[in-house]
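Hey all, sorry for the wall of text incoming. These are the two entities for the joint prediction.
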Amino acid sequence: MAGRAEGELIAGFDVRRAFGASVVLSGVDIMIRRGEVVALLGGSGSGKSTLLRALAGLDPDATGTITRHGRSAVVFQEHRLLPWKRVAANVGLGLTGDVPRRVAAALAEVGLADRERAWPAELSGGQAQRVAFARALVREPDLLLLDEPFGALDALTRLRMQGLFGRLRAEHGFSALFVTHDVDEALLLSDRILLLDGGVIAEDIAVDLDHPRTPDHSGFGVLRRRLLARLGVPVLEEIAP
Amino acid sequence: MTARRWRRALTPVAVLLAWEAASRGGLIPPAKLPAPSTVLETGWRLARSGDLGEHLGDSLTRAALGLAIGGALGVLLGTVAGLIRLGDDLVDPPVQMARMLPHLALVPLVIVWVGIDESLKVTLVALGAFFPLYLNTYAGIRDVDERLVEAARTCGLSTLARVRHVVLPGSLPSLLLGLRLAIAAAWLSLVVGEQVAAQSGIGFMMMEAREFSQIDVVVLGLFVYGLLGLASDLILRAVERRALAWRVGLKAS
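and here's what came out:
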């Protein structure tokens, strides 16, 4: 455990990134500690995904100091499974050791134990994204980096996947940084919300709500209105049923 | 499905029957175009005497040798140019320039270089097979989804492993398309190559028959070329079904 000062898993200092003349990140400071789930919230084009890619080490043109401790794994908005490999081979990609047993366990955890031999093209969108989660989980990450992981799913599948994420998180205790533009999703799943605006972290908000959370939880609405207002969405008076 | 397959066979069979009837009825003079049954008879005769098998064997050997040489070079250079930027800069411009030439226009030059015997035929087939395989290997590698390569990187795959697990399988459909075009180009090259000072092969058999006005043998040669094309297509389809089994689901949806 040496070198993991204060349980720090990933830290970015003065992270900057510009695409041509347009500056997207202008000096972001960010730190994720062991055990916490952090939502990275922001409007479209605010640079959320850019920041996540920089933290994941996928953007060689981003500048700044990024230090990582422990293992990390990435889940993208699209499942990004290799179409020419069966589900099990996709999950076990790049693994060594007792791969079949670990793959089977990871697939069972996402409820797809019986689809080991399927091709990705035979899966529904939600199933494919669950396989992508299994592919990340099987690496036993300390930190999960998720780029709008539920963004491409239909509303019902998204709710189910959010529930699955909560269960997996409770079981494995990994930390997570997930990008989202969905205020409700951020409030349901995270311990802390970082609001990205103007190329920097504009707000750092702790979410002190009990689990399991629901949108009709007391305190949920207060935070929701505050975040939406901060994102520039005027919140109308709730219409009584 | 099978009903549909039979229906698709209707017109070809009808054309053959009409041709046969027109020949027997005296509508088509046998000196211009013999009846299909005559051609089949000739085929049977030449097959029994062993002549047909010998010519066919020589043609197939030339095609296989040329395809192996030209195809291997095409895939190798296409891979180098597709994967490595330096390779792209050095290899691609001359190949792109050379592919503008119809390779059969090189026959006079190739004769001067390698002579008129076997090496001419093999060289022509190799030239014909090289370009489609080079171009499609190159394009296939370039078209691999960058996001999949990135995902493989997050799974800890090294550059070499990414090439093996992502880039090469991803370019396989395009490579197989290149192979299909290369085989077609190989037959075309043989048709031309075997009419230049050959002593054997289907092309030679047809040339010789024309000298003696054996039109039935000429038409038989055409039939053989057609069947060769059909056979190579069937084999390739079988290969694609196995190698690209992962696309089955895509077709269904």
